[in-house]
Amino acid sequence: MRAVLCSSNAHKLAELQVALPGWELELLHADEYPEEIGESYYENALAKARFGRGVSPSAAWMLGEDSGIEVVALRGGPGLHSSRWSVRWIDELLERLEGAEDRRARYVCDLVALGPECQELRGTGTLEGAIGKERRGREGFGYDPIFVPIGESRTVAELGDAWKRSNSHRARAARALAEAAASEPRTCSLRPGRPPRSPRASTGETS
Ligand code: ITT
Fold first, then answer.
1. Is 123 in the pocket of ligand 1 (CB under 6 A)?
2. Overall number of domains in the chain
3. Is 107's C-beta closer than 6 angstroms to any atom of ligand 1?
4. 34-90 pLDDT per residue, tens
5. Where in the sequence is the domain holding 84, given as residue range(s)?
6. Does 140 contact ligand 1 (Cβ within 6 A)?
7. For residue 165, with 0-12 CB atoms within 10 Å meaning exposed, 13-18 middle and 19 or more buried, which class applies?
8. Helices (H), 34-189
9. What's the gap in Å between 69 CA and the centre of ligand 1?
10. pLDDT surpassing 60 at residue 196
């Protein structure tokens, strides 16, 4: 299946290429991307996929992805606002959690695929863990140097890209999407305005 990932983030592409082996994926090349103003990861992911459909004449599937990190001590923040929360995001988070005992956090990812004939597929995935006390490791991106998955002592940036490609929230969402592609009824959501009632989501397993 040929699909265009409506994202500017090459790390996401690399993860999804491994997690969706039957899919031939490429990045959308656009000068601008839609603003992330949805009320859920799903809405933002759908907006990205719809945007891709609008600017690309291709008959390929359009894949939208939105993700974020949710920190329990910040009542789930920065969450949906992860990408624009702070330019100094890691320092900011470490400062806010200084002395905090409860450092639990999770990554969340929603993936939406829109087919050439208006089909819609969705997959979600999470990765539970905690915020470490300092930066460690060099791989991954974003919050990976301070995110320690549950059951691990190393950060995602230390565990590395190969670990991440099998275990991340994105890999889990991709597996759920692939399952949905194999089994779920498909509905159209290309009409303008707010997205329709969300289709039954396939949820990636959490750890
Ligand atoms: P696109 O919108 O172009 O897809 P982006 O990097 O801006 O790329 P998001 O809007 O989905 O992506 O923002 C997600 C933010 O959440 C991202 O910038 C990171 O700060 C954080 N994040 C999401 N997934 C992550 C991951 O796997 N590792 C580390 N940080 C992640």
1. no
2. 1
3. yes
4. 888 899 999 999 999 999 988 887 789 999 999 999 999 999 999 998 876 665 789
5. 2-204
6. yes
7. middle
8. 41-55, 89-96, 156-167, 169-183
9. 9
10. no
* Most ligand 1 atoms within 8 A of CB, residue of 5, 9, 136 to mutate: 9
Annotated active-site residue 144? The verdict is no
| pLDDT surpassing 70 at residue 207 | no
Which atom number of ligand 1 is nearest to the Cα of residue 15?
27
**pTM of the entire predicted model:** 0.89
Q: Residue 179: its pLDDT value, please?
A: 93
CB hemisphere CA count around 162 (13 angstroms): 0
For residue 198, the domain's CATH number is 3.90.950.10
CB-ligand 1 contact for 144 (6 Å cutoff): yes
Interhelix angle 156-167/10-19, nearest 10 degrees: 50
Give nearest CA residue, ligand 1 atom 8.
9
Q: What is the token pair recorded at 84?
A: 């624009």
For the record, the structure tokens of 163 come out as 């670990």
Average pLDDT of the chain is 88
Interatomic CA distance for residues 62 and 68, integer angstroms: 20
- The ligand 1 atom at the shortest distance from the C-alpha of residue 33 is 3
